[in-house]
């Protein structure tokens, strides 16, 4: 008996069933999580056409080149950064390292600002230098950048404001310097998150963010983004495709969900952090408070010129220079979690080693530096907790 083509057998029904995306009624507010490796086409002609166009156009052709949920997030990030297009990476660090791979070749020279996210130094030492790319660190305020440029310099990489102490550099001036030497300017914009700072609008060609931080905002997902101008785009897209780097649609969905409240959260982080910063500055146990929104910060004038606001990060130096004092302070806190990273809804505290994170500035001899991420808790409770921590400094065990 010939098989009825309208009643496929069980194994076939298991493969073919349940694929309808048509729903009756209205549509959801949010884009769907599209879990996909394979993309299906109507004909070989359509598949070949997509393959021809996918290097220059954003098309869903295979999961390793991005998925529709990730594309929705890319669009949000491109809008935040004011850039042409965006690619997503599994971590912020992977986004950073892809920039070096995409725009540099052995024999090239790169300038990196001294206040850069510290794990990048490890990438430079373990991969970039052995691969044949020469790196020079320049001062976080950019003051010696011009004298560090060489005929082989192809990339100037900055983090502004910098990690741990929030140093600022004059980004438009650095862009002019880089471009006059035929180099590109890349900026780590994790601090600004596209809300408080927009490097591409200040002349940078490439902007990178650890979406792990404020974009996601909930300490439950890792991701990095790279957004570029139209001119700088192709090397990034080509190298990312060549290496098969992609993120899961579930992770993209989580970050996309976080971005909906990014502006509202940052406004509160800023308000709470400023309350805490002003209180800290008045404490005798505190030698210095680092926050670019404070007039005494060395980068304050540039912050006023280029930034729309600040975020939940503040660092401070203790008067008591013993490392044990800083540990007693942090251990004496109960509302602040002890941990690295930041950008979630919660407050964190950690003692940071600035001396090992800077090569152009000598930090030996300074008191220990504590970095706080001020979260969305009531700042009055946070200040009570910090007062308790400062009290614990003097409770010596001996
Ligand atoms: C955290 C961070 C990164 C790295 O992001 P991960 O997602 O943790 O890899 C990069 N740059 C800055 C400034 C960061 O704070």
Automatic annotation (TrEMBL):
Keywords: Lyase, Pyridoxal phosphate. Signal peptide: none annotated. The modification N6-(pyridoxal phosphate)lysine is found at residue 213. InterPro entries: Cys/Met-Metab_PyrdxlP-dep_enz (IPR000277), Cys_b_lyase_bac (IPR006233), Cys_met_metab_PP (IPR054542), PyrdxlP-dep_Trfase (IPR015424), PyrdxlP-dep_Trfase_major (IPR015421), PyrdxlP-dep_Trfase_small (IPR015422). The keyword Hydrolase does not apply. The keyword Lyase applies. SUPFAM superfamilies: PLP-dependent transferases. It comes from the Bacteria. One of its GO terms (molecular function) is cysteine-S-conjugate beta-lyase activity. Its cofactor is pyridoxal 5'-phosphate. Pathway: Amino-acid biosynthesis; L-methionine biosynthesis via de novo pathway; L-homocysteine from L-cystathionine: step 1/1. GO terms for biological process: L-cysteine catabolic process to pyruvate; transsulfuration. It catalyses: L,L-cystathionine + H2O = L-homocysteine + pyruvate + NH4(+); an S-substituted L-cysteine + H2O = a thiol + pyruvate + NH4(+). PROSITE patterns: CYS_MET_METAB_PP (PS00868). Pfam families: Cys_Met_Meta_PP. Belongs to the trans-sulfuration enzymes family. PANTHER family: CYSTATHIONINE BETA-LYASE-RELATED (PTHR43500:SF1). This is Cystathionine beta-lyase.
């Amino acid at each position: 008996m010939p098989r009825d083509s309208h009643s496929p057998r069980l194994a076939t029904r298991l493969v073919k069933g349940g694929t309808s995306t048509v729903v009756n009624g209205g549509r959801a507010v949010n884009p769907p999580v599209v879990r996909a490796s394979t993309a299906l086409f109507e004909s070989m002609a359509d598949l070949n056409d997509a393959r021809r166009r996918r290097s220059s156009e954003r098309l869903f052709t295979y999961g390793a080149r991005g998925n529709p949920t990730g594309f929705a997030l890319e669009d949000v990030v491109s809008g935040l950064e004011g850039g042409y297009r965006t690619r997503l990476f599994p971590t912020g660090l992977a986004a950073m390292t892809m920039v070096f791979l995409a725009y540099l070749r052995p024999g090239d020279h790169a300038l990196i600002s001294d206040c850069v996210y510290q794990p990048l130094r490890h990438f430079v030492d373990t991969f970039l230098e052995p691969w044949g790319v020469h790196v020079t660190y320049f001062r976080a305020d950019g003051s010696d950048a011009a004298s560090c440029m060489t005929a082989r310099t192809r990339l100037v990489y900055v983090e502004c404001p910098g990690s741990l102490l929030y140093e600022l550099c004059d980004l438009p001036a650095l862009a002019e310097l880089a471009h006059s030497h035929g180099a590109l300017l890349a900026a780590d914009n994790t601090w600004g998150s596209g809300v408080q700072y927009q490097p591409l609008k200040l002349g940078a060609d490439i902007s990178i963010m650890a979406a792990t931080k404020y974009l996601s905002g909930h300490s439950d997902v890792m991701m990095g983004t790279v957004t570029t101008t139209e001119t700088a785009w192709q090397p990034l897209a080509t190298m990312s495709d060549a290496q098969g780097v992609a993120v899961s649609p579930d992770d993209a969905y989580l970050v996309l969900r976080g971005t909906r409240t990014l502006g509202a959260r940052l406004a509160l982080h800023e308000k709470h952090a400023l309350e805490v910063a002003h209180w800290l500055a008045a404490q005798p146990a505190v030698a210095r408070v680092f926050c670019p929104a404070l007039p005494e910060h060395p980068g304050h004038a540039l912050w006023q010129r280029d930034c729309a606001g600040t975020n939940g990060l503040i660092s401070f130096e203790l008067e008591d220079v013993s490392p044990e004092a800083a540990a007693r302070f942090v251990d004496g806190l109960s509302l602040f979690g002890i941990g690295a990273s930041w950008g979630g809804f919660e407050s964190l505290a950690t003692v940071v080693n600035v001396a090992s994170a800077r090569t152009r500035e000598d930090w030996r001899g300074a008191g220990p530096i504590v970095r706080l991420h001020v979260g969305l808790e009531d700042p009055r409770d946070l200040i009570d907790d910090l007062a308790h921590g400062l009290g614990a400094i003097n409770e010596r065990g001996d």
